[in-house]
Amino acid sequence: MxxxxxxxxxxxxxxxxxxxxxxxxxxxxxxxxLSALVRSQVDGDGSLxxxxxxxxxxxxxxAGGLVARFxxxxxxxxxxxxxxxxxxxxxxxxxxxxxxxxxxGVLSAAHVYGFVLLSSGPARAHLGGRQ
Length: 131
Description:
The protein is mostly helical.
């Protein structure tokens, strides 16, 4: 069983400014891979899975770095979240099924929100940066 690191009060040691981006990265990666898996089953094209798996690996590495309090994970997360948000915006503009475009729009907005939270003062203070 996976346990979140907890502080002396039993609450999560991660402040919400880091916990929410971790959940966005992990959940967004899972949803992106699942949507690509459904599309590959419907279209019969297995190559649709390659790019979402690469993105999922990057996002899971960022999420793991944030949980482990790896200092460069915040900047790396900002870069990855920006790139992933732009990728999802391109999917919104592409010729894809309506449900894929709606999901990509939501994931793009979530990644922009995650970027904003990673840029906040409490996130920088928790990872040892300047406030």
